[in-house]
Amino acid sequence: MRTLTGKKFNPDKAHKLVSEERKALLPPDKIIEYLEVEANDVVADLGAGNGYFTIPIAKSTNNTVYAVDIEPKMLDMLKENAVKDNIENINYVVSDLVEIKLEDESVNKAIISMVIHEVSSIDHTLNEIKRILKPGGQLLLIEWKAIETESGPPLHERISATDMLETIQNANIDAELIDLNSQHYAVKARMK
What we know:
Helix content is 28%, strand content 24%. The protein contains six helices and seven strands. The chain starts with 19 loop residues before the first helix and ends with a strand. By secondary structure, the protein is of the alpha/beta class.
């Protein structure tokens, strides 16, 4: 089992999550196209933060979007952003990602962005994602490449794309690697 000791994101730096630089590198509407969200999908944004991906996902489905985050302050910011955009289909769930507070097979799509390096156990988190996703459900995982960059976690906390792909495939999940930009990669996965 792989165990990490990544530090949690500081909510006082939440403004960085919606910076113009981030929008240029990871345009939310373009990124969520990989998740193929449809009007009736139930989606979980795991590590939702202040809603960078949650808001556009909620606009893409008429069904429930679960915004899951360990930090209540981040979910409060997300609630404020959702109110500004008149979005009412988000359910806010304070939870870590080692024991996700969602029912078995309760969602058919999930996204986890820039968070997996922070969990105490990737294996436990992947098992939880498998538990909450319906058979055939899709996962989009986004992470920092294992290279030095001006922003993001220290290099020793990053997980290379090939290691992440192998870890996901070893969890008996079909997955493919997507090179997003010079700093980030994604793994698109489908539950068996």
